[in-house]
Write a structure and sequence with these properties.
The chain has 200 residues and is α/β, with parallel strands linked by helices. Helices cover 28% and strands 21% of the residues. A 7-stranded mixed beta sheet has the order 5-2-1-6-7-11-10, sandwiched between helices. A two-stranded antiparallel sheet has the order 3-4. The chain has a two-stranded parallel sheet with strand order 8-9.
Length: 200
């Protein structure tokens, strides 16, 4: 996917990672691609490439294609810390990314999320069904305030998280959003938090 032209802005020099797979919610993904660039941030879409140089995924609503050529596996600690934020989007992205061939091992995307939670300098943004990706690492969200899709409330409570009935919830370095329909509020909150962090 061709990079979007960056505008000079308060997030110039900032990088944001968005995890991707098929059945993504197109309005959300295309909004992130342009909205963060408006603030000067570069957005990298990462996926499990399964040995391919790139993969083209299709959206959930309109079957829109989206090609990703950056792998999430093998990201070094330094490369992970280069990202100001890692976003797990809505739709079925998290469910597809949490697949693992060996049930005794974390899926690569879940392992990446586990590592991101160990980095307080990296903001974790998880929206709607995205919290599925954390289901195998409940310790990452245990005791944290979160919101999620209504269908996942039981899941997040079983993971030990504290469900909060708001459209967007911020708990330190974790931002969660209720549904893909709330992506604009979620993105605005993330932008504001990253600007505050950069100002420090």
């Amino acid at each position: 996917m061709t990079d979007v032209a960056l505008r000079a802005g308060p997030l110039s020099g900032t990088r944001i990672a968005v995890l991707m797979e098929s059945d993504f919610y197109e309005p959300e993904i295309f909004y992130y691609r342009h909205r963060f660039a408006e603030e000067g941030a570069r957005v990298d879409f990462l996926t499990r490439l399964w040995g391919q140089s790139e993969l083209t995924f299709t959206g959930h609503e309109y079957r829109a294609p989206f090609t990703v050529d950056r792998g999430l596996e093998g990201l070094t600690p330094a490369e992970l810390r280069d990202y100001a934020a890692v976003i797990v989007p809505s739709g079925m992205v998290a469910d597809r990314l949490r697949y693992t061939e060996d049930v005794e091992r974390l899926a690569p995307a879940t392992e990446l999320l586990r590592r991101a939670f160990a980095e307080p300098g990296v903001v974790k943004g998880i929206i709607c069904h995205g919290l599925w990706l954390a289901s195998s690492i409940p310790q990452a969200v245990r005791g944290r305030k979160v919101v999620c899709h209504n269908n996942l409330v039981g899941d997040v409570r079983n993971m030990g998280a504290a469900y909060v009935d708001q459209d967007v919830v911020v708990d330190g370095d974790l931002i969660t959003g209720r549904t893909g329909e709330h992506h604009h509020l979620f993105a605005r909150t993330l932008v504001d938090l990253l600007i505050q962090r950069k100002a420090r």
